[in-house]
């Protein structure tokens, strides 16, 4: 039996690398509208996505989403409101590998530091102006004041934010190359984790007194 050539082995290795690095798997049918949630309101997000509705029950409205036509409330400490358009809110996205959020910011409002572990993000500002920035793995801060009609891309997994630097309200649409990009809020995850991260660990990590950690935890404690 002949041995595979070096070029063939290289091609197979590259194909394997691409297959393992992409955000969401490729669909194997025209569409797979997510089936309604179970009796407890939750389903297991098993690979590669949610279960499909029977094709015979799919209708045009399954591919339509109107929730982002209205602004989200910004009446909160961050002055920010996010209307998600992921597969949990828009079942027609199931297996298609994309999703879309609407971000509304009051003057001075911020969509606070967070990451999306499963997706890159394209921020397109539709109204107002936002300072958009992220921090790379080597600690370098990249940012830009993005104005109406302009865009800024955030690589997958990078810690980032959007901050309204204008005099009026600002609005952006954020596009993801995953049907469910996930979100990890930096401050909430660190200071609001349940069970709590020990004060000593956080005090040592942030090089501050434990009393400061207790104060920060009180800001993010639920209930």
Automatic annotation (TrEMBL):
Oxalate binds at residues 101, 111, 116, 121. InterPro entries: Cupin_1, Germin, Germin_Mn-BS, RmlC-like_jellyroll, RmlC_Cupin_sf. It is found in: Secreted, Extracellular space, Apoplast. GO terms for molecular function: manganese ion binding. Residues 1-23 form the signal peptide. SUPFAM superfamilies: RmlC-like cupins (SSF51182). Residues 64-214 form the Cupin type-1 domain. It comes from the Eukaryota. One of its GO terms (cellular component) is apoplast. Keywords: Apoplast, Disulfide bond, Manganese, Metal-binding, Secreted, Signal. Pfam families: Cupin_1. Mn(2+) binds at residues 114, 116, 121, 160. Disulfide bonds join 32-52. Belongs to the germin family. This is Germin-like protein. It comes from Dichanthelium oligosanthes. The lineage of its organism: Eukaryota, Viridiplantae, Streptophyta, Embryophyta, Tracheophyta.
């Amino acid at each position: 039996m002949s041995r595979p050539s070096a070029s063939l082995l290289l091609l197979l290795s590259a194909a394997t690398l691409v297959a393992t690095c992409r955000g969401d798997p490729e669909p194997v049918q025209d569409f797979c509208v997510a089936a309604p949630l179970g009796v407890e309101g939750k389903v297991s997000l098993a690979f590669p996505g949610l279960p499909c509705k029977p094709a015979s029950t799919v209708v045009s409205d399954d591919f339509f989403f109107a929730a982002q036509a209205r602004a989200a409330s910004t009446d909160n400490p961050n002055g920010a409101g996010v209307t998600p358009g992921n597969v949990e809110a828009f079942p027609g996205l199931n297996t298609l590998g994309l999703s879309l959020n609407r971000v509304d910011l009051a003057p001075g409002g911020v969509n606070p530091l967070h990451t999306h572990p499963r997706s890159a993000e394209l921020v397109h500002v539709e109204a107002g102006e936002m300072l958009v920035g992220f921090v790379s793995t080597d600690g370098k801060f990249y940012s830009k004041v993005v104005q109406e009609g302009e865009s800024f891309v955030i690589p997958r997994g990078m810690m980032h934010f959007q901050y309204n630097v204008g005099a009026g309200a600002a609005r952006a649409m954020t596009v993801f190359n995953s049907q469910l990009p996930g979100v990890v809020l930096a401050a909430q995850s660190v200071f609001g984790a349940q069970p709590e991260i020990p004060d000593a660990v956080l005090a040592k990590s942030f090089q501050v007194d434990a009393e400061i950690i207790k104060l920060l935890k009180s800001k993010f404690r639920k209930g």
